[in-house]
Amino acid sequence: MIKKTSLFAFLLVCLQFETNIILAQNDSVVSRIIQAARTDNRTMNHLDILSNRIGGRLVGSDAYENATYWAAGLFSKWGLEVTLQAVDTLPVGFNRGPWFGRMLSEDGFVLHFVTPSYTAGTKGVQRGHVVLEPKTRGEFERMKGKLKGAWVLITGESDGFPIDFSPFADEERERIIKENEAISKYNDSIKRWNFEHSGKESKSFKALRESPALFYKEMREAGILGLIQSAKTPLRALYDRRNLFYMSFDSLPTCPDIKLDEDQYNIILKKVKERRYFQLEFDIRNHFKPGPVVIHNVIGMIKGTRFPDEYVMCGGHLDSYDVGTGAIDCGSGVAPTLEAARLISMSGAKPQRSILFCLWAAEEFGLWGSEFWVRTNRDKLGSISNYFNRDGGPTVTSGITVPEAMYSDFEKVCEPLNSVNPDFQFLLKKRGGKPQPLPKNAGGSDHAYFAMNGVPTISFDNSDPKGYDFNYYEIWHTERDTYNISIPEYMNHTSVVTAIVLYNLANLDHLLSREGLYDLNVK
Questions:
Q1: Separation CA 73–CA 191 (nearest Å)
Q2: Where are the domains of the chain?
Q3: CB atoms within 10 A of CB 445
Q4: Helix or strand or coil: residue 45?
Q5: What are phi and psi of 345, to 5 degrees?
Q6: Is 384 exposed, middle or buried (0-12, 13-18, 19+ CB in 10 A)?
Q7: With left for phi above 0 and alpha for psi between -120 and 50, is residue 362 left, alpha or beta?
C-alpha cells in the first residue's frame, strides 16, 4: 500500500517530469523556428505576392477575392485548419484598370491624378475643353451650352472621397443654391447702390456659399465629361461609401470624379481664368462587376492539444486601397501573420492551446471582419489569452508593455527573443498607472471590438532603430503604399518574434491574467 505522502511526492515528481518534457519541447520548437527564420524567412515573398502579383485589394474587387483564396491555400498547405468566414455582401464589385491623362497645349504635360474607388471611368479616351463650375443658377444658365463635352474644375480640396451624389446631398445642394440666389440678389442691389453713390464709401458684397459641384445633376445632364478637383500629394483615393450601398449594376455612376495634383490643378485653373484655349485628355478604366459580391475573413488555426477551446490570436486586415498596392496598409500586418503561421507549423509544434491567425475583411470599410468575428464568437471571448493586432507599418517589433499581472508570464514567453538577432533587442516593460477604462467606441483597427468586450489586446511596441525614416502618414491610404516602402529586415524579424511569442503563450498552463487590464468600474 502506497502512503499518502509517498503518493503526493510521486505525483510531484511526475508533474515536474511532464513540465520538464514540455519545456524541453518548447525549447526545441523555438530553436527550429529561429533556425528556419534565419535560413528561409519568406515574409517578403508573401508581401511580394500579396502586393505585386495580386495588387491593391479593395473590398469587392477581384484582387481581394484572389488574396482570400491565396491566403486560405497557404494555411491549408501548411496544415492549418482553415475557415473562410462570409462577413457581408456588396451590391456591386469594382476593379481598377490603367489610367492616364494629359494636357494638350504648347506647354502640355502628363497629368498626375487618381479617382476614388466605385466611381465612373471614361468611355475610352475622352478629350475636351475645360470650364469653371457655375455657382449660381444665373451662371449655370449662361454657360450650360458650353458644358457639353467639357471637363469641369470644381472648388474645394479633395479628402480622398468622391463627390456625394446621394438624394441627401442633392437636397443640401439645392438649399445652398437657394442661399446663393438670395446672396446674388443682395449683391446686385449693392452693386447698383455703389454705382449710384460713387462718391461715397462702397458697401461690401457678401460671399457666395462654397460647396463643390453645386450643379452636379444639371451639369451631368448638360453633357460634361467629368469633374476635376484639387488634391494634395501624395494623392489619396478612397471609396464611395456614401453611394455604394444604393448602387446596382443597372444604376452605376456615370460621371468621372478626378482628384488632380494641386500644382497641376492651379496651372490649369490659371489658364481657364485667362480664357486660354487648351484641352485635357483622359483614359480612365474603372470597371464594375455584378453583385452580390461576398467578402470573407480568412482564419487559419493550429489546434491546441490540451486546451483546444482556449486561444492566442494574431492578425491584420486583408483589404487595402487600390491606387497603391497595400504593401504597408496592411501587407505589413498580413505578411508577418502568414510567416508566423508557417514557421510554427513547419517547426512541428503542438501547442497546448489553439493559435488563430486572422486576416480580416473590410477593415477600411469600418472593421467589418473583426466586428463580425467578435459578434459571432461571444462564447470564445473569455477564453482568449491575447489578440495581437498589427496595422502600423513595416517597423520592427522591439518590445511589449504589459500590466503587472502579466509580467512574470511574459518574462518566460519573451526569454528567447534576444537570441534571435543581436541587431534587434526586445524590451519587456511593465505598464504603470491605473487600468484603462474599457473602450466604448470602435476605432483605429481590428483590435477595437475585442477590447470593447474586455479581451486583452496587448500590442507589440514597434520602432525604427536603424533610422530608415519611415513615415506612416506619408503612405497612409495614398498612391505611395507600395512594396518598395517596406523594410525587409524589420519585417523578417517581426515574423519570428511573433511566432515565438504566440507559441510560448499557447504553451502556458493558464490564460494570461486580466487583472489590472481594464477598469470595469469606469463608465
A1: 72
A2: 30-91+293-519, 109-277
A3: 22
A4: helix
A5: -65, -45
A6: buried
A7: left
- How far apart CA 219 and CA 165 sit, in angstroms, is 12
Spatial CB neighbours of 16, under 8 Å, sequence gap ≥ 6: none
Instruction: State the cell numbers at 250.
Output: 443597372
Question: Would you say the CATH fold of 109-277 matches that of 30-91+293-519?
Answer: no
Q: Residue 222, Cα to own-chain centre: how many angstroms?
A: 37
| Cis, bond preceding 292 (omega within 30 deg of 0) | yes
Measured distance CA(505)–CA(494) in Å, rounded: 16
Q: Which amino acid belongs to residue 134?
A: P
Domain 109-277 class, CATH top level:
alpha beta
Virtual torsion, Cα 178, 179, 180, 181, nearest 10 deg: 50
User: At 13, is the secondary structure helix, strand, or coil?
Assistant: helix
Q: Could you tell me the CA-to-CA distances from 13 to 6, 8, 17, 20 in Å, in that order? A: 10, 9, 6, 10
Residue range 485-510: mean pLDDT, rounded: 98
- Other beta carbons less than 10 A from residue 419's beta carbon: 12
In one letter, which amino acid is 122?
T
CA atoms of 67 and 235, how far apart (whole Å): 25
pTM here is 0.92
C-alpha–C-alpha distance, residues 388 and 373, integer Å: 15
For β-strands 353-360 and 279-302, DSSP reports them as antiparallel
Q: Burial level of 2, CB count in 10 A (0-12/13-18/19+)?
A: exposed
Cα 428 to its chain centre, rounded Å, is 28
Amino acid letter at 483?
Answer: Y
What pLDDT sits at residue 2? 44
CA–CA gap between residue 386 and residue 504 (Å, rounded): 12
Instruction: Decide if 320 contacts 57 (C-beta within 8 A).
Output: yes
| pLDDT, tens only, 207-222 | 888 899 999 999 999 9
Q: What would the grid cell of residue 261 be? A: 495634383
CATH class of 30-91+293-519: alpha beta
pLDDT per residue as tens digits for the range 235-257: 999 998 888 988 999 999 999 99
